[in-house]
Write a structure and sequence with these properties.
Blueprint: E1 3-7, H1 11-23, E2 27-31, H2 34-43, E3 48-52, H3 60-69, E4 76-80, H4 85-93, E5 98-101, H5 106-118, E6 128-130, E7 133-136, E8 141-144, E9 147-149, H6 153-164, E10 170-171, H7 172-179, H8 188-202, E11 211-214, E12 218-221
Parallel strand pairs: 1-2, 1-3, 3-4, 4-5
Antiparallel strand pairs: 6-7, 7-8, 8-9, 10-12, 11-12
Helix pairs in contact: 2-3
Length: 225
């Protein structure tokens, strides 16, 4: 299942895109401003990015520029109501891979995404490791001690977040904001249930877990020495 970051501040359009792509069997992470989109590009691996041009806090151009300047290679599709050739060239100049003017048909969006996903990968996958754990962002596979463990999309995103942010304490709200899709139900109870399920999948009964509860604060991932 390909993982897509959508950055779109129009709530109605964002909901429509999320519903459409999820029905096409994509996992969609939706953010409604440029700053959050850039933060998620730093914290997670995506297969494609759908980036609105005009957004609060940071424009799509600014997000794309900063992401590419850090070596980010994920394919980026711009959405914009700008039709001038100069604007299109500006998007391509900062590293966009494709450009879809608004309004557009959802079928065309799907076709553009499929084309981006078929392009050869420019870099070797960055496998995340911690102790005897391995997480493969591109293939969405997780291993512990060489054994493959099947994780749900949310569980996988949570482990990816922890492995990229080891030894840092995050509050419940911070984790929910960074990991859970905007369109899904999320609450401290949802997080506790997911944590319990994740621990049970990765660790044996009575085995010490690196996913640690920091009482009164939240959670952190910390391997024992």
């Amino acid at each position: 299942m390909a993982k897509i970051l959508l950055a779109e501040d129009d709530h109605g359009l964002g909901e429509t895109i999320v519903d459409w792509l999820e029905n096409e069997n994509y996992f969609v992470d939706w953010k409604n401003n440029g700053a959050d989109a850039l933060e998620h590009l730093k914290a997670f691996e995506y297969d494609a990015v759908i980036l609105d041009w005009e957004m609060p806090e940071m424009t799509g151009i600014e997000v794309c520029t900063q992401f590419r300047s850090r070596g980010g290679q994920t394919p980026i599709l711009f959405l914009t109501s700008r039709a001038a050739i100069e604007d299109k060239l500006a998007g391509f100049d900062v590293g966009a891979d494709d450009y879809l003017p608004k309004p557009f048909a959802m079928k065309e969006l799907s076709a553009r995404i499929r084309a981006l996903l078929k392009r050869p990968k420019a870099i070797v996958e960055n496998v995340l490791r911690a102790g005897d754990m391995e997480l493969h962002p591109k293939t969405h596979e997780f291993y512990r001690g060489g054994e493959k463990i099947k994780l749900s999309p949310i569980e996988f995103a949570l482990m990816e977040f922890f492995l990229k942010n080891q030894n840092v304490v995050f509050s419940n709200d911070a984790i929910l904001d960074r990991v859970w899709p905007a369109t899904s139900e999320r609450s401290p109870d949802t997080l506790r249930t997911c944590m319990r399920r994740l621990r049970n999948k990765i660790y044996k009964e009575n085995e010490d877990s690196a996913i640690r509860t920091v009482h009164g604060v939240g959670y952190k991932f910390e391997l024992t020495q």
